[in-house]
Structure formats: structure tokens, C-alpha cells
Amino acid sequence: MRPSGRNLSEMRAVSIETGVTKHAEGSCLIKMGDTHVLCTASVEERVPPFIKGSGLGWVTAEYGMLPRSTSSRMRREATSGKQGGRTVEIQRLIGRSLRAGVDRVAMGERQITVDCDVIQADGGTRCASITGGWVALRMAVNKLMKVGDIKTDPLISPVAAISCGMYAGQAVLDLDYPEDSEAGVDGNFILRGDGQLIEVQMSAEGATFSRDQMAQLMDLAEKGVNELVAAQLAAFA
């Protein structure tokens, strides 16, 4: 039995509310169970120096957790003068995941920055950030297309992410914190809506895993991402 009482292949309740901030070109609040993340997308008519003049667009991301997003208060990273290694790793993951769903030629030479701020954490914050980040990105691109700044839709396919793991010896979908903290195997799966894999992060957290178990987790991940893509698209309905 899972701590939440969910079935092995059952996700937490997912909701995506769009247009939650006034100024950003795209924004949403995504809730995956008790993990809540505010995602905003900001458009700038410039690109990083290393691609300037190439005609290619760029999508990047920043990620952070608010001080009381967890059970005890954490210090803002700004007070220490630098980001922690976990933060840097996650925001790089979000950026490259979203870029995998973008035709950067069609995007034109501009940058969209997706900011993901964790309001409340209960496991799977990076997955929620990627999933919500794509919704914010979609909104920003829609706005650029509406005013004619982009002629051809540069978004190839939705991008979503889900966690899966081996908990109490069984493959489970969408780990919350109690499961994540005790999982023998923990994995994050990032896929496009067309089924193409972007990245898989898997590690043994106290127990090794077999090829068959990895296949079970992959099957669960595909199911979860399909449900998340449906929620992404429904957010625009």
C-alpha cells in the first residue's frame, strides 16, 4: 500500500491554471498533489552571445524554492550569494528539456526565459516545473504568433516529466515525498508528447534494479506523461 493510498499506476491530482500573473508573456500555476509550482515565461529580443547572429532562438530556465516550500524554513540562496548545486542542475535540466521541443530556427533570434518557483514541495518539483514550464512557454509563443513576430509555430510537441520508482519492491508512478525519501530506486522521465525521450535520470537509492524493472518504470512514465500532456492541452481549452 502506498502512503497516499493511491494505486501503483495512479498519479496525484493534477491541475494547471493559466494566466496567473499580469506581466509575463506566459504563466501558469501547476499543482501535482501537494507540489505547487509557479511558472512564468518572459520574452526578450536578444540571445546569449554564443549564438548571436546565428538566427537561432534560445530557451533557458531558472528554478528556485521559496523559504517555506518545505516543512522547515530554508534560507534564500540569494542571501548566501550563490546558487546551490542542486538548483543549478535542475534549472539546466528544465532548460534543455524545453529546448528539445522547440524548432529554434522557427523561433527566430530571441530568448524565452522560463522561471519556475516552487511554492510548496512534496516531491517531483523538477517534473512539475518542466510540465508547467512548457505551458508557460506555449502561452508566450502563442502571444508572439498572434502579433506576427513568429510566422511558423516553433513548438514541435508538448514536453512533460514524471517521476517513477521502486517503492516497497513495486514499481510506482509519480512519487510524493514520503515515497521519494524511501524509494529503493528513483527516476525522472522527460518525454515529448509524440513519445520521443528527452532524458531519463535513474539511480539506485539503496537497492539495485533489473532491466525488467526499468521497463516497468518506463511503461509507467509513458502513461504518466500521456496524462500530463492531456492536462497541458486541456489548460488551453
Automatic annotation (TrEMBL):
CDD domains: RNase_PH_bact (cd11362)
Positions annotated to bind phosphate: R86, G124, T125, R126
Listed transmembrane segments: none
SUPFAM superfamilies: Ribonuclease PH domain 2-like (SSF55666), Ribosomal protein S5 domain 2-like (SSF54211)
Pfam families: RNase_PH, RNase_PH_C
Keyword line: Nucleotidyltransferase, RNA-binding, rRNA processing, Transferase, tRNA processing, tRNA-binding
Domain Exoribonuclease phosphorolytic, residue spans: 10-140, 158-224
Signal peptide interval: none
Enzyme class: transferase
Coiled-coil ranges from the UniProt annotation: none
InterPro entries per record: ExoRNase_PH_dom1, ExoRNase_PH_dom2, ExoRNase_PH_dom2_sf, PNPase/RNase_PH_dom_sf, Ribosomal_Su5_D2-typ_SF, RNase_PH, RNase_PH_bac-type, RNase_PH_CS
Subunit architecture: Homohexameric ring arranged as a trimer of dimers.
Record family assignment: Belongs to the RNase PH family.
Function field: Phosphorolytic 3'-5' exoribonuclease that plays an important role in tRNA 3'-end maturation. Removes nucleotide residues following the 3'-CCA terminus of tRNAs; can also add nucleotides to the ends of RNA molecules by using nucleoside diphosphates as substrates, but this may not be physiologically important. Probably plays a role in initiation of 16S rRNA degradation (leading to ribosome degradation) during starvation.
Name the record gives this protein: Ribonuclease PH
Gene for this chain: rph
